[in-house]
Design brief:
- The structure is a single chain.
- The chain is about 25% helix and about 25% strand.
- It contains 5 helices and 5 strands; from the N terminus they run E-H-H-E-E-E-H-H-E-H.
- A 5-stranded mixed β-sheet has the order 1-2-3-4-5, sandwiched between helices.
- Strand 2 and strand 3 form a beta hairpin.
Amino acid sequence: MNNTAVVIKAGKEQMDIPLIHRFLDQDSYWAKGISYELVENSLSGSFCMGAFIDDRQVGFGRLITDYHTFGWLADVFVLPEHRGKGISRQLLAFLLEQPWAKRLRRIMLNTLDAHGLYRQYQFENLHNPQLLMEIYRPDVHLQQELV
């Protein structure tokens, strides 16, 4: 790859789903072992965005959203060989500049190690964590699909 500019594209149809699946399945700390079908189906209910260099996808993120009040940022990654070049910042800026995203009342995410990155985009620790509850099943994607 030459030193070509990063292009951000949106929409599931623009995404390299095999690449996204491979990263989530093999390299992520949050979705190891996830099936291709589950990844593909999850993209259908999300605003997908990808970073591309020379038409090859090098980064990804998705916002699970109703486009009016709430969004959950998930599966954000940049391939290891492209990290440290500001690509994740470009993805976040692209997302937060969407007119509908500016109107969302709350955008949330989980992260193990990228707090500094997200704080640059006004993400903060929870205001009132005592108000939030969860059902936490981190390995449910490894169980057989229930029909």
